[in-house]
Specification:
Number of domains: 2
Strand content: 5-15%
CATH topology of the largest domain: Alpha/beta knot
Bound molecules: S-adenosyl-L-homocysteine
Strand order of the largest sheet: 3-2-1-6-4-7-5
Helix content: 40-55%
Order of helices and strands: EHEHHEHEEHEHEHHHH
Largest sheet: 7 strands, parallel
CATH superfamily of the largest domain: SPOUT methyltransferase, trefoil knot domain
Number of strands: 7
């Protein structure tokens, strides 16, 4: 069950250790740490309580982008139901079979935010959807490692379900390919002088969210890239003021 667990900027080393333990108990071993405040740390080792192998093999990177570049399906976790329009929230139970199906065909990741602030909207632009653990609206935020435990448990239960998850004909395009598509669209928008009249958050960031939410496979990305290349070629043939 190769699901990648990604912790973005965890502050407390104890939470990293407790995350390793939560993952190990449910059979998950792939931990990526994005700019942890301090790691390795004796407190992380202490709270891993026997799951040090996960800590030893943890990958350290500087940005979320690096952690998920090769992933097809990327789900962010958030206590707050925010940006419902861009990121429809699923429960862990709904998300688990989808993650396992994607993980069986390529790389799939679950992303957790920093203890105090959670994930930013920029972080969410790399994600296909948001997973929210149902909780009391008066106090909805779980401890980081406990949130990891709930998700790992649901993945374990889904993995033991008798019905195999459906397979896609073509694998999901990895995040790095979606980024190239967004950049390519950005070039074309500049060439045709398209500006964002609505204002609000960065236009390319908003387009990236649309692509993330669409769960595009590699063929679909290729078609869109081809379409953009055709627009550029046509403009070149017609002279740059066309
Ligand atoms: N104030 C922050 C809380 C961060 S808690 C916020 O509003 O997001 C640290 C991390 O634990 C979160 O970024 C998320 O990854 C996870 N988490 C905590 N409670 C959660 C919940 N109810 N559902 C899903 N993830 C949760």
């Amino acid at each position: 069950m190769p699901i990648r667990f990604v912790l973005v900027a965890p502050r407390h080393p104890g939470n990293i250790g407790a995350t390793a333990r939560a993952m190990s108990t449910m059979g998950f071993h792939e931990l990526w740490l994005v700019a942890p405040a301090s790691f390795p740390h004796p407190e992380a080792t202490a709270l891993a309580a026997g799951a040090e192998a996960v800590l030893r093999s943890a990958r350290l990177v500087h940005s979320l982008k690096e952690a998920v570049a090769d992933c097809g399906l990327v789900y962010a976790t958030s206590a707050r139901a925010r940006g419902e329009y861009y990121w429809p929230a699923s429960s862990p139970r709904e998300a688990a079979p989808r993650l396992l199906a994607a993980g069986a065909e390529g790389e799939a990741a679950l992303v957790f935010g920093p203890e105090r602030t959670g994930l930013t909207n920029e972080d969410l632009a790399y994600c296909s959807g948001v997973v929210r653990i149902p909780s009391d609206p008066a106090y909805e935020s779980l401890n980081l490692a406990q949130a990891v435990q709930v998700l790992a448990y649901e993945l374990r239960c889904a993995g033991e379900a008798p019905v195999p998850p459906p397979r896609r004909a073509v694998a999901l395009a990895p995040v790095a390919e979606l980024e190239k598509l967004t950049a390519h669209l950005g070039e074309v928008l500049t060439e045709v002088d398209f500006t964002d009249r609505a204002g609000g958050p960065n236009l390319l960031n908003r387009l990236a969210r649309i692509f993330g939410r669409a769960e595009l496979d590699q063929h679909e990305v290729n078609v869109l890239r081809g379409l953009l290349a055709a627009v550029q070629a046509r403009r070149r043939r017609a002279g740059s003021d066309a």
